[in-house]
C-alpha cells in the first residue's frame, strides 16, 4: 500500500487508490457480477458457494457474508462496487452508510435530516479540526 | 452551426431516481427537493435543446475495474439503462447523437484531450437521474444525449484544472459542429457527501455554498482545489464536483445564473442545482 499520511489523516475515510484497486480487484469484480439477475439468484441461493467461485481471500469472503462494509473496504472494496451487494439485499446507500457508521438506520436518517455530519472535527485527525 | 445555450448542474443521487420511479415525489421527505426543480422543469420545457452533452460518472456499472478511463465519450446511437443490482430503472432508453459525438471525440483528441471512445455504453443513475429531474417520466426523453463519463471512482481523479480546460475545449468543439443544433451542457454529481466508512453522512454547507457562488463567477479559482481539499471539505464522494467544471468551461467566460437551489438531505447527499444561461 502506498504511504499517504495525508489521506490517512482524514477521519473515518479510505481513499480508493490504484493499490487498493489491486488489493480489491476480485472482490469488486465479484460485486459487479451481481448486476445480472441470474447471478443474484445464485448468490442468494448459496452465498458461500457463490463466493467460493471467486479467488477472494477468506477475510474478503467473511466481510461479504457478514455485510461488514467497513471490513470489505479495508480489504480493498469500493463503495460503488459494494453497492451491488446491498442492492441485491434490497438495501439503500443510506442503510449501508448507517451500517458503516455503527448507527441504526433510524438514527442515521435523523442525523441526515438535521443537516448531516458536520465538517467541524471531521477534517483532520492531526489538526483536530 | 451548433450553439451552446445553457448549462445545468445537478446532483444525481440514486435515491432521487427511486423516489421518482416509486411515485414518492410529493412525500414529506421528498417534496422539498422536487419543489426546487419545478422552476427548471418549466424552463426547460420552454427552452428545449436538441442535444444535452451530459457529463457524469459511471458508478461501477458500465466500467468495472478492468478498464478505468479517466475521460470517455459515448459515440452510439442509443444507450441502454444499466441494471445496478435491483433491475434497470424503468426509464426510456437514452437516444444519442452519434454524429455530434464523433465530431466531439475527433476535435477533443486533436486538441490533445485523449478521451476514450465508447461505442457501447450502459448508463446508470449518474446519467438517468438528472434526466428524470428535469423531464419527469416521459415515454421517450425529449432530447438526444452525448454522454461524457469521468472517472471519479478511483484516485487519482482528473484535476479540477484539467476538467475546466476540457470544458473549454468542449465548448469550442461544439461550436464547430456544422449542423444547426442547440446544445446544453450538464455537469452532474456532488455536492458534499460521503458514502463510505465511519465518516459517512458528511455534509459541508459552507463549502457547497461557496462552490455554488464561484462556479458562476470564479470557476478559474475553483480549479485550484486539490484532491485532498475535496476529500477533507466535501467528503470522499464530493470530488464529483470536478464534473461541474467541465460544464462551466464549455459555457465560456460569462454566464447568467437563472436558478439556484440547495437542499439537504437526499439520502446521504447535499443536493445542489443551478441553471446558467450562456453569455
List strands and helices in order, with pairings.
The complex is a heterodimer of chains A (129) and B (279).
Chain A: H1 5-8, H2 18-23, H3 25-33, H4 37-45, H5 47-52, H6 58-65, H7 69-74, H8 79-88, H9 93-101, H10 105-113
Helix pairs in contact in A: 3-8, 9-10
Chain B: E1 3-10, H1 14-21, H2 31-35, H3 38-46, E2 51-56, E3 71-74, E4 78-79, E5 94-95, H4 98-110, E6 116-118, H5 125-135, E7 144-150, H6 160-175, E8 182-188, H7 205-217, H8 219-222, H9 227-234, H10 242-251, E9 255-266, E10 269-278
Parallel strand pairs in B: 1-8, 2-7, 2-8, 3-6
Antiparallel strand pairs in B: 1-10, 3-7, 4-5, 9-10
Helix pairs in contact in B: 1-5, 4-6, 6-10
Radius of gyration of chain B: 17 Å
Helix/strand/pairing class of chain A, anyone?
mainly alpha
| Number of H- or I-type helical stretches of chain A | 10
Low-confidence stretches of chain A: none
CATH topology of chain B: Protocatechuate 4,5-dioxygenase, Chain B
- The helix tally of chain B amounts to 10
Structural class of chain B: alpha/beta
Q: In sequence order, what are the helices and strands of chain A, one letter per element?
A: HHHHHHHHHH
Low-confidence stretches of chain B: none
- What is the CATH level 1 assignment of the domain at 5-90 in chain A? Mainly Alpha
Q: What CATH first level of chain B would be assigned?
A: Alpha Beta
Amino acid at each position: 500500500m502506498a504511504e499517504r499520511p495525508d489521506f490517512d489523516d482524514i477521519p473515518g475515510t479510505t481513499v480508493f487508490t490504484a493499490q487498493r484497486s489491486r488489493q480489491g480487484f476480485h472482490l469488486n469484480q465479484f460485486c459487479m457480477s451481481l448486476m445480472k439477475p441470474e447471478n443474484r439468484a445464485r448468490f442468494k441461493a448459496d452465498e458461500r458457494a457463490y463466493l467460493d467461485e471467486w479467488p477472494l481471500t477468506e477475510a474478503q469472503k467473511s466481510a461479504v457474508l457478514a455485510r461488514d462494509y467497513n471490513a470489505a473496504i479495508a480489504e480493498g472494496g469500493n463503495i460503488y462496487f459494494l453497492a451491488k451487494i446491498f442492492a441485491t439485499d434490497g438495501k439503500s446507500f443510506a442503510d449501508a452508510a448507517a451500517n458503516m457508521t455503527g448507527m441504526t438506520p433510524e438514527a442515521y436518517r435523523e442525523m441526515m435530516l438535521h443537516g448531516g455530519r458536520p465538517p467541524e472535527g471531521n477534517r483532520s485527525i492531526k489538526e483536530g479540526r | 452551426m451548433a450553439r451552446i445555450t445553457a448549462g445545468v448542474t445537478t446532483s444525481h443521487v440514486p435515491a432521487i431516481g427511486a423516489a421518482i420511479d416509486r411515485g414518492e415525489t410529493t412525500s414529506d421527505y421528498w417534496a422539498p427537493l422536487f419543489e426546487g426543480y419545478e422552476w427548471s422543469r418549466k424552463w426547460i420545457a420552454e427552452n428545449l435543446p436538441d442535444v444535452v452533452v451530459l457529463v457524469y460518472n459511471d458508478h461501477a456499472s458500465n466500467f468495472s475495474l478492468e478498464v478505468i478511463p479517466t475521460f470517455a465519450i459515448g459515440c452510439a446511437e442509443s444507450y441502454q439503462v444499466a441494471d445496478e443490482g435491483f433491475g434497470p430503472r424503468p426509464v426510456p432508453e437514452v437516444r444519442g447523437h452519434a454524429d455530434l459525438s464523433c465530431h466531439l471525440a475527433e476535435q477533443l483528441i486533436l486538441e490533445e484531450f485523449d478521451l476514450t471512445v465508447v461505442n457501447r455504453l450502459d448508463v446508470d443513475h449518474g446519467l438517468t437521474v438528472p434526466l428524470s429531474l428535469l423531464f419527469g417520466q416521459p415515454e421517450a426523453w425529449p432530447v438526444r444525449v452525448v454522454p461524457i463519463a469521468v472517472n471519479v471512482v478511483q484516485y487519482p481523479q482528473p484535476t479540477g484544472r484539467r476538467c475546466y480546460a476540457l470544458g473549454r475545449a468542449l465548448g469550442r468543439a461544439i461550436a464547430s459542429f456544422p449542423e444547426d443544433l442547440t446544445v446544453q451542457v450538464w455537469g452532474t454529481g456532488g455536492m458534499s457527501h460521503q458514502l463510505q466508512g465511519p465518516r459517512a453522512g458528511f455534509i459541508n454547507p459552507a463549502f457547497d455554498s461557496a462552490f455554488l457562488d464561484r462556479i458562476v463567477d470564479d470557476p478559474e479559482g475553483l480549479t485550484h482545489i486539490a484532491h485532498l481539499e475535496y476529500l477533507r471539505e466535501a467528503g470522499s464522494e464530493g470530488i464529483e464536483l470536478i464534473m461541474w467544471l467541465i460544464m462551466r468551461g464549455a459555457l465560456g467566460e460569462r454566464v447568467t445564473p437563472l436558478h439556484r437551489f440547495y437542499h439537504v438531505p437526499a439520502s446521504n447527499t447535499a443536493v445542489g442545482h443551478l441553471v446558467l444561461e450562456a453569455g
